[in-house]
Amino acid sequence: MPNLLVKPQGAHGRVSHVTPESAGWTYVGFDLHRMKPGEIVAAETGSREVCLVWVSGKGKATAGGADFGVLGERMSPFEGAPHALYIPANSNWSVTAETDLELAVCSAPGGGDYKAKAIPPGTHPQLHRGKGSNIRHVHNIMPEDDNSAHSLLVVEVITPNGNTSSYPSHKHDRDDLPNESLLEETYYHRLNPPQGFAFQRVYTDDRSLDEAMAVEDGDVTLVPRGYHPCATIHGYDLYYLNVMAGPKRVWKFHNAREHEWLLK
Ligand SMILES: O=C(O)C[C@@H](O)[C@H](O)C(=O)CO
């Protein structure tokens, strides 16, 4: 099985590159580009649909021949909501950086009759989940109820320092609706301030998979199956961007029974 902790390669250009082949799975792809003003990244989508997320910085976008203008507002993922752009399969896109730009390219198998669409900040209200030291702040970017994609689900989460998230432990690794859906998932992690770290455990009930990872700024983690809670340490907030996809565009998770009391 591939290593579940993917470190960035350098500080400029395409620093993270996760494909279904490299991850040893079927659906989710994730790239992270760090661009300088004037640099261009462009691609054909082919059989996959794509959601571009302006993690930080500004850039001019075109998709499928349409001009979407300059997108991006925030200069840090810890400040406000993101701009994003959905592009269906069999199309193309380009982004020209106007400032230093941290651009995420989230992808999954395409299909259906979907149109390229900008997703500006405020499209989905910010959610606050959990209680006490399990409070975290959620910006949905492409949630399942928006009916605007074939298989991609995209969300970002801020976990304040000292808190947990993706917790109590839950999983989504069985195609058994209405009880549970099967979704692969990537996490793109940022820390504030950046010298910090956090932890993520990926594990199954039988512990045939059980990895505890120290996560640093810019790391990507892979969740092929199993529970995947995160924990931050005092002084360091954690941002992550999740990409999920599977055979059905439904996020139906199963809570670890032994921790469900925390929800009562
Ligand atoms: O609520 C959270 O803490 C975020 C998680 O739900 C995260 O998006 C995830 O684990 C999705 O399965």
TrEMBL record:
Q: What class of enzyme is it?
A: isomerase
Domain of life of the native organism = Bacteria
UniProt cross-references to InterPro entries, sorted A to Z: Deoxy-glucuronate_isom_IolB, KduI/IolB_isomerase, RmlC-like_jellyroll, RmlC_Cupin_sf
Task: Cite the EC number.
Answer: 5.3.1.30
Keyword Ubl conjugation (UniProt): no
* One GO MF term: 5-deoxy-D-glucuronate isomerase activity
**Mind listing the UniProt keywords for this protein, alphabetically?**
Isomerase
The record's listing under Gene3D superfamilies reads: Jelly Rolls (2.60.120.10)
The name of this protein is 5-deoxy-glucuronate isomerase
The upper taxonomy is:
Bacteria, Pseudomonadati, Pseudomonadota, Alphaproteobacteria, Hyphomicrobiales
